[in-house]
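Input chain follows. Return structure tokens only.
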Amino acid sequence: MKVSDILRFKGATLFTVSPETALSAAVHVMAEKDIGSLVVMQSAKLIGMLTFREVIDTLAKSHGALGEVHVGEVMEREPLTCTAETDLDDVRRMMLDKHVRYLPVMEGSTLMGVISFYDVAKAVAEAQSFENNMLKAYIRDWPAEEVSTQDK
């Protein structure tokens, strides 16, 4: 299974902000849309990611206040990315090794979407369920053994 399979089912809705966006406004968008990340774009180019991790870190450092902080000050500046052709096993390893929950999907310099750890886990669970059902069907349809005359 490839990342493109996840994107096909997930849809193409993307939520982006600019680095000049107030962090408080970005948090409002994340809460309103029930999302855990925003892609930070400038001049149609991916320049960073804002996730709840950066928001929580900022809140901890500023004793619970976001103040006048802008997204560009706290975003992940070099987010890990993948392509639509990246194999899902590779994505799982990347996400686990780098402790990343959101992964922008790029085609050259074009942002194709964002996949989350949840998206990957859901796709894996669905694939395993399908395989499990296929194996159960195969076992039910297992041909009966023929008894040879030597066994009698």
